[in-house]
Amino acid sequence: MPRLAKRQKYRDNIPTKDPEEYFRITLFLPFLDSFVQQLNDRFVNHQNIISGFQMFVKSSEFDEEKLRELVEFHANDVDDFDRVKSETILWNRYLTDSNKQYNSVIQILNECNPDLFPNIYKLLQILITLPITSCEAERSFSTLKRIKSYLRNSTSERRLNGLAALNIHYEVSVTPEEVISHLSSTKHRLDFIL
């Protein structure tokens, strides 16, 4: 346990004799508070903002508070609240009148006319690009650790991106014929005589 001083500026000066209680108060409890706060910021606080996107996917009842939070959060990307509100009302009417069934947000984005609904179109684009989980980024970093070893340290960025994409998306099958046809169609600096 660190010694106690009469006047302390740079660390906690907890008046206790027990080292376990000192480290619990100075390290463990602030760590737990920080951890809980980060979980709340990541999941609970953004849940209301993300639930505002539901008005654009389903023809549900209009919730002005959720839409206001969504517009305030994405204020740099969309117009003012009144325009987005009027577009949302028209978009919901369009969804109920069309009576179509959509399987994905991409189908809804393709159905949305960017000239008639510019703000809805931007918000649907944002919804598509939102990462639902962080597993894709974690997979890419673990892949990069395997690909860029000290033997391949001088690999160019283009080749490294290609190797990473092949390793991350291993479920996509690439046949040798596709690779040969692609390589034969590109222009080479050297002429090969076969």
TrEMBL record:
Molecular-function annotations in GO: protein dimerization activity
Native source organism of the sequence: Macrosiphum euphorbiae
Protein name: HAT C-terminal dimerisation domain-containing protein
InterPro entries per record: HATC_C_dom, IFN-induced_PKR_regulator, RNaseH-like_sf
Domain HAT C-terminal dimerisation: 109-170
Highest rank taxon of the organism: Eukaryota
Pfam family, one: Dimer_Tnp_hAT
Transmembrane spans: none
